Amino acid sequence: MLYLSEPDMIAAGVTDSAKCVDAMEEVLILLAEGDYRMAGASANSHGAQINFPKNPKFENMPADGPDRRFMAMPAYIGGRFNNAGVKWYGSNAENRKHDLPRSIHVFVLNDSVTGAPKAIMSANLLSAYRTGAVPAVGVKHLALENSTVAAVIGPGVMSRSILDATLSQRPGIKTLKVKGRSLGSTQRYVDWVKERFPQLEDVRIVETEQEAIEGSDIVIAATSTSPDGPSGFPYFKKEWIKPGALLLLPAAARFDDDFIKSDDARLVVDYKGLYSEWFNENGPDVTYEVLLGIPGNRWWDMKEAGELPEEKLVNMGDIASGKATGRTNDEEIFCYSVGGMPVEDVAWATDVLDNAIAKGIGTKLNLWEAPELS
Fold it and tell me: Which residues contact 26 (CB under 8 A, 6 or more apart)?
């Protein structure tokens, strides 16, 4: 098998946002067609997670803390990818005090027939770039062709890769508005954007969500959940949203239910099965209000309560394949909820591994010369 360090992954193209968007488009179509498996009886589970008690009884057991967890995310994706794999990571918000990422990821890619490992990969960039590319599939199919103004609410690692992928699909964007929680982190994001994307003519910090949303063709909501629950999530008031706007929603965001129910909002999700499984795992309100804040979870709660017809929720893959109607005019407002799934990691890992093999990148590791038990 091949071991790929982070520099190896970069050399093999893991940061190629445009190609990653194309791969994620394929994945979303395969999901909508059913050519995939994830964890659980329904094959739709996001993964298995280890959490810790607030006051452990055992001396060496970690205590609960901000985003302290371990998670395994296994999946199989078919089509041309035809591989299985698992993303395994530990997460702890206090890592930042030690100059470490909040989450530290590795990925194992396996042959779908024999189960033999093909590669072990450093996976922080793998995860980040597929996370950015899935919203950008929505940009490819749903954003106005002449989009020139974008906004980021919640500058951070996630919004970096989403912006990179978004600009790969709409290079005509010239203005970026940024709304953050703290001036220091927001300024660092703006400085990064100016250096990374010199083609942007106007990159500026705004003080309110309203300023970010008003007049923007594309809005990226990338803020984590709030201890205050939905009242602390970024708020998207209908009157602030520009006709024709695309709202990318991979993190916490709040809308008025009347807007979501109305014909003014076109609701798109990465894949309905994910939201159904989250609802079954956690029950109503918990996933949206406590765990994630992703709007699609709220929409699914409304669907289960009989407040929203399921047909109003459309899979992105069905739009990409032409099975469902996408944009029909320049006035429609699209709300695109993205939860993220391990099938996406499998697909992008497959393409990166193929590139690594073709370029002779990586370190070969051997499990055995011959298996002792067979």
Answer: 79, 80, 81, 347
Whose structure tokens read 């452990």? Answer: 56
Interstrand relation of 175-179 and 246-249 (parallel, antiparallel or unpaired) = unpaired
**pLDDT at 139 > cutoff 90:** yes
3-class SS of residue 79 = coil
Nearest in space to 218 (alpha carbons), one of 258, 262, 267, 170 = 170
> Residue 290 has what DSSP assignment?
I
Q: What is the pTM of this model?
A: 0.95
Contact assessment for residue 268 and residue 327, using Cβ atoms and an 8 Å cutoff: no
Angstrom distance (rounded) from CA 296 to CA 336: 8
Q: Which two tokens stand for residue 149?
A: 């103004």
**How many whole angstroms separate alpha carbon 274 and alpha carbon 289?**
17
Nearest to 285 by CA among 312, 272, 269, 304: 304
Q: How far is CA 141 from CA 31, 199, 244, in A?
A: 17, 23, 13
| Cβ within 8 Å of residue 214, ≥6 positions away | 240, 242
Specify burial of residue 326 (Cβ count, 10 A radius: 0-12, 13-18, 19+): middle
Give the pairing type, strands 48-50 and 69-77: antiparallel
Q: Would you say 355 and 12 are in contact if contact means Cβ atoms under 8 Å apart?
A: yes
Q: Are strands 202-205 and 254-255 parallel, antiparallel or unpaired?
A: unpaired
State how far Cα 27 lies from the chain centre.
13
Is the pLDDT at 204 greater than 90? The verdict is yes
